[in-house]
Amino acid sequence: MVQIGRFNRLQVTRMQDIGARLDAGRWGSILLPKRYVPDNCQLGDELDVFIYLDSEDRLIASTQAPKVLVGECASLKCVSIGPMGAFLDWGMPKDLFVPFAEMAKPMEEGKYYLVHVYLDNSNRLAASSKLDRFIDETGHQYRRGQLVDLLIGERTDLGYKAVINHTSWGLLYHSEIFKPIRKGFRIKGFIRGVREDGKVELSLEKPGYGRINDIAERVLSQLTAAGGHLPLSDKSAPEAIQETFGISKGAFKQAIGALYKQQLITIEKGGIRLVDEDATKA
After folding, report:
1. pTM of the predicted model over 0.90
2. In Å, how far are 43, 116, 153, 201 from 163, measured between CA atoms?
3. pLDDT at 280 exceeding the cut of 70
4. CB neighbours of 126 closer than 8 A, spacing ≥ 6?
């Protein structure tokens, strides 16, 4: 069955001057315009195509990938305002429509908005900035340490709200943020924990001691590559640690603390140094 707003694998049944006709089952045939038809395309070939409605509300196929699929969330730019709503740039020839009734606040041309893409009652793709209608407030299905995709939302007193895997809200505390982020950013993150009320807490680093072991291995590798010394320590600026390792200062301190306890490094005023194995054996 053809899914509107998603990629479908369809078979070529006819070649025309205007493009290729694809078998869409009960939907009949769908046109893949000539500009999207791959070179050497032949009858019987199966193509992965994105299906949507064109400006005349006809099903149309494209090998071009949009910025967001149906059921997903994205930060999109408003390119125009019409009598019935706004239109967003989503990377396709026909802009994505947002009805006035689906705006959390009035949209303005040139600004970016977080939206959820859905199919309306006429199977036309549309978007809504009323995310709470589509995004769950709880995340009981997640486990601590799970890697997830995040779409950064509004800033709050505690941190940033973020959409997890297009389906759930989570909170990324200010204390867990060690690199620049802003609303609309897509970023990988981790589930820090799920509270008893189902609210999800997020982190940009993998929680638990396993994460520290991973970071410690990276520190050792960097030390070896640098000749045994790095000008970073527990006194270094968070920005310097972020630039070198892409981690928070707290995670770095835990990692070098673990290495120090294992007598693998020494912590000096100007940085950290690998312990000379021959010296320790002597």
Report:
1. no
2. 42, 10, 7, 12
3. no
4. 96, 97, 98, 99, 102, 117, 118, 119, 120
Topology at the third CATH level for domain 7-62 = OB fold (Dihydrolipoamide Acetyltransferase, E2P) (2.40.50)
Tokens of 56: 């005349």
Strand segments, DSSP code E, in 159-257 are 159-164, 168-173, 186-194, 200-203, 229-230
Quickly tell me which residue has 């995004």 as its tokens: 135
Q: How far is Cα 82 from Cα 87, in angstroms, rounded to an integer? A: 8
Residue 208, pLDDT above cutoff 80: no
Angle, nearest 10°, between helix axes 238-245 and 249-261?
A: 80
Second CATH level (architecture) for the domain 147-203: Beta Barrel (2.40)
CATH level 2 (architecture), domain 209-281: Orthogonal Bundle (1.10)
What residue ranges do the domains of the chain occupy? 7-62, 73-132, 147-203, 209-281
